[in-house]
Amino acid sequence: MPARQTKPQTSKPRARRQTSEARPYHHGDLRRVLIDAALQLAAEGAEVSVREAARRAAVSPGAPFRHFPNRDALMAAVAEEAQRRFRAEIEAALAEAPSADPLARFRAFGIAYVRWAIRNPAHFEIISTGRYFAHGSSAELTRDNAELVALTERMLAEAAEQGLLRSTDLKRILIAARALIYGFARMNLDGHCPRWGLAEDEIERMAEGVIDLFIAGIAKH
Amino acid sequence: MPARQTKPQTSKPRARRQTSEARPYHHGDLRRVLIDAALQLAAEGAEVSVREAARRAAVSPGAPFRHFPNRDALMAAVAEEAQRRFRAEIEAALAEAPSADPLARFRAFGIAYVRWAIRNPAHFEIISTGRYFAHGSSAELTRDNAELVALTERMLAEAAEQGLLRSTDLKRILIAARALIYGFARMNLDGHCPRWGLAEDEIERMAEGVIDLFIAGIAKH
DNA sequence: CTCGAAATGTAATCGATGATTACATAATGG
DNA sequence: CCATTATGTAATCATCGATTACATTTCGAG
Q1: Strand D nucleotides, any atom under 7 Å to a protein CB
Q2: What range does the domain containing A54 cover?
Q3: Would B128 be classed as within a structural domain?
Q4: Which site among A24, A137, A206, B58 is 20 to 30 Å from A221 CA-CA?
């Protein structure tokens, strides 16, 4: 361990801006870069640590705490970004679904939901678990999620109004539907699928089959 | 930092065994105690750390590593114990279910499954997630879980043989059933239930309702 | 324009944790 | 009875989240 250096840094502050090499003292948008680094870390399956995110942003270990009061706040921001992407993909899928048939829309919703979860396991995990930051700490995340729930609710209510369902216990159907879809997505995440003996792409088709089975179960006739 | 002490400890080794106060150098069954401490830590919602388990066992921080090569191994042992209890409760519930009606047995299975998951959230999490230790690192855990899956499979196959099911795609039905039950249990764990506006005990009744809905959906007529 | 306040990054440091090593002590069996 | 082995202790390390004091840059009010 070298003796404490009080002020060793060679001060080369003048004539900076010109040379493109010298990294400016202030990072362009560190907050954004940190979120992206954390997202990438998660996607790589690594544990998301503030320090590693800082390392990837080429910044000191303490810098992130200027933008996030603690690790959980960073994770919450990561979750918000992931949720944004999740929701965007689901809404894109619904935009292509027939607007008249609520059960077909529900099917499209479920398939898009599971697909994204399968293809973005780490991000889905962060979104759905509430174990990486204080639950409800992000209003945006809570609101986004509530809207997705409301979306499902509306589709099923519409189906009921059109007399497409056998049962009228909407609350029960809604919860069952969510449990089925969430459960399927989670089983992948939690490694319950290798035992099924299904290849990657077969899993997505199985998801369609399972959702169809459920719809057939709740549909009239 | 004090200078290294080579052998400072006052050797008071004689005349020990008599006095009941002096904790013996060797712990009775540290392995067992560590697992119990870790189980309790998890149940309390705290993070399970090797050090804290050692602390509760009144033992040095390095001691646990005589029994577990690393933290994951301890967690795997904890998971094995939890899985044992989980399976025991499910089999107890099945022992009381009518042996003739496979769908009633499936219902009892599902309810017992969800009940245990709701009442032992932290333990269920450790069992089911495979995020606390290397997946498949415990042969016992894998085997136990596979047996539960096989159990469900048998019940549904039996129902099919008795002509109770509308569809003959057993694999699809099995996966849907597991997704539904696992999903319901997970939604609780992951905090998706407060939004349902259900009280603690209502959730368990809702689980029964959801399982009944599913059974009605796959049953003939 | 300038100067001082606010924003943002750095350096040093703390306490907790998982892990490893050298060493101390107890249990066991030949 | 003693030596081998099992088991616990002490000391130490690297990593991490977090905090604090300090340095640098930005930006707006006068």
Answers
A1: 7-12, 15-21, 23-26
A2: 30-66
A3: yes
A4: A206
